[in-house]
């Protein structure tokens, strides 16, 4: 396409990735973001206290598939490693089981069954990554079956992650360790497809990484290459002229003409609210949400590394609750305590604590997070859960901030506060995600609710797919 005027709705990582690539291709790009800062779910918060300032990533705490970001940075300016300081985490995390067993990822993966499973996951990855992740999509199951019929038994599309795990792994700890990877796409391991075994394969092959100074720096670095970025400006609608996009209407009454619009906003909200005539989009089940408790702690906690996972006694109860509108009584607790001097005053620690949570709303599978005291009660339960597992930090708390699914919805305009857009639940989930090219000429989708799904590397891949589609239009 010759030089186009591009408007990107939303400065999440998918939107910024698309904007940076399209700017590098020579297009005139404007990113319009309703929030006062860039990054979307990759948020950042600073909390002052008498002990000094605590700083927190409020969203992602682990960067996987760094090659996706190496490609993105190389295509748009200085290489990644010259722009940001990345540190590979070793160990990736330490896992505490309810029976008192403590193991890190290296110990859990030192097992013949695990190695055989990861060998299969490698072959699954080779068979699926080009169509499921890298190409614009979504793919079609019949197309896949026609192109590579021999891969279908390998991928086992109707088998669940739990079922494939139980075939290879005898140890319940390893089964639980595997099943947790379903939550990387906000899914239930009993309903997520077996192909999600590629998630631990990718994490252990390409590593899990931290960005010094906080992962949010990734968003700031991309915003520097994303053309003109206008924050605190919402998009209220997309204008069409003879059926093709011609611009966007801003919530402050302004108008921006455009030849191309890239929506990084939630796909359902886009098709329902931003087009002149609402359209129905096929969509899988939304991903689960999360309750975040940010804690500034005085003093040091021995035995807590960068990432710690406290598994519950009954994992199924957690999924039965979060996908049915209830907060689990004994959820998995994830602690991220970056070993980064930028984040906490001297002698203190900045903890990001996350538990899976039902989406915000009043429907049967949702939870009303705006009910009086709901967030604080849930956060108190998380602190009690920490204490029960030997991490009683309550009397060391200097600052505390709770971010509920309702807060996430308000901050990022994500319906229900789904962390990952749509979940991987069900054999058809990957095939149901809204396409990167919309049926409306000139309108494209990048972000967690579109193909190929949520998580930092995947939304960056959606931005790359959109840049290719625009470039070849
Ligand atoms: C608590 C938490 C923990 C997570 N942990 C990890 C992790 O460890 N690793 C990982 O890889 N991923 C993680 N994720 C997921 C990851 O953050 C997301 O998948 C990813 O950041 C989403 O990017 P996106 O491109 O979909 O855009 P979003 O982040 O959803 O941003 C979309 C942007 O569009 C803006 N917008 C929407 N509508 C409009 C409009 N009409 N006008 C203007 N602006 C609009 C929003 O304000 C928002 O800024 C986590 C997420 C959360 C919330």
Describe the overall structure:
This protein is an alpha/beta fold. The chain folds into 3 domains: 5-42 and 65-86 and 213-282 and 433-471, FAD/NAD(P)-binding domain (3-Layer(bba) Sandwich); 106-209; 285-417, Guanine Nucleotide Dissociation Inhibitor, domain 2, CATH 3.30.519. It has 17 helices and 20 strands. Strands 8-7-16-17-18-15-19 form a 7-stranded mixed beta sheet. A hairpin with a 2-residue loop joins strand 3 and strand 4. Helix 1 (13-24) runs parallel beside helix 17 (456-471), helix 2 runs parallel beside helix 17 and helix 5 (112-134) crosses helix 10. The protein starts with a strand and ends with a helix. It binds flavin-adenine dinucleotide.
Q: What are the salient characteristics of this protein?
A:
globular; 17 helices; 21% strand; 20 strands; Guanine Nucleotide Dissociation Inhibitor, domain 2; FAD/NAD(P)-binding domain; binds flavin-adenine dinucleotide; 3 domains; alpha/beta; 473 residues; five-stranded parallel β-sheet
């Amino acid at each position: 396409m010759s030089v186009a005027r591009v408007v990107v709705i939303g400065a999440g990582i998918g939107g910024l990735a698309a904007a940076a690539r399209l700017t590098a291709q020579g297009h005139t790009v404007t990113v319009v973001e309703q929030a006062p800062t860039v990054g979307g779910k990759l948020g950042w918060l600073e909390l002052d206290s008498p002990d000094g300032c605590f700083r927190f990533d409020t969203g992602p705490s682990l960067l996987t598939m760094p090659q996706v970001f190496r490609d993105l940075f190389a295509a748009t300016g200085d290489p990644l490693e010259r722009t940001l300081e990345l540190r590979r985490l070793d160990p990736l995390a330490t896992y505490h089981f309810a029976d008192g067993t403590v193991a890190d990822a290296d110990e859990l993966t030192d097992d013949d069954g695990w190695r055989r499973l990861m060998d299969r996951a490698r072959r699954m990855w080779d068979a699926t990554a080009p169509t499921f992740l890298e190409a614009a999509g979504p793919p079609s199951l019949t197309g896949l079956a026609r192109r590579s019929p021999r891969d279908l038994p390998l991928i086992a599309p109707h088998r669940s992650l739990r079922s494939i795990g139980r075939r290879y792994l005898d140890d319940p700890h390893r089964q639980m360790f595997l099943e947790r990877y379903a939550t990387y796409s906000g899914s239930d391991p009993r309903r997520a497809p077996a192909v999600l075994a590629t998630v631990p394969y990718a994490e252990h092959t390409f590593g899990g990484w931290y960005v010094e100074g906080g992962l949010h720096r990734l968003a700031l670095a991309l915003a520097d290459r994303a053309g003109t970025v206008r924050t605190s400006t919402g998009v209220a609608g997309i204008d069409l002229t003879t059926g093709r996009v011609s611009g966007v209407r801003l919530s402050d009454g302004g108008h921006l003409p455009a030849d191309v619009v890239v929506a990084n906003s939630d796909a359902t909200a886009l098709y329902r609210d931003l087009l002149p005539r609402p359209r129905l989009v096929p969509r899988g089940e939304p991903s689960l949400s999360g309750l975040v408790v940010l804690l500034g702690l005085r003093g040091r906690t021995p035995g807590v590394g960068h990432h710690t996972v406290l598994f519950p006694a009954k994992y199924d109860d957690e999924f039965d609750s979060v996908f049915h509108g209830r907060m689990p009584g004994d959820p998995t607790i994830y602690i991220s305590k970056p070993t980064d001097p930028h984040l906490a005053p001297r002698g203190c620690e900045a903890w990001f604590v996350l538990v899976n949570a039902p989406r915000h709303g009043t429907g049967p599978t949702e939870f009303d997070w705006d009910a009086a005291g709901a967030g604080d009660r849930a956060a108190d339960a998380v602190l009690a859960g920490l204490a029960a597992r030997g991490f009683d930090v309550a009397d060391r708390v200097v600052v505390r901030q709770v971010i509920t699914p309702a807060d996430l919805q308000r901050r990022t305009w994500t319906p229900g506060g789904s962390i990952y857009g749509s979940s991987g639940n069900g054999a058809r989930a990957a095939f149901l995600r809204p396409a990167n090219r919309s049926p409306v000429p000139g309108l494209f989708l990048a972000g967690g609710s579109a193909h190929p799904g949520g998580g930092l590397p995947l939304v960056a891949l959606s931005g790359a797919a959109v840049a290719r589609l625009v470039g070849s239009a």
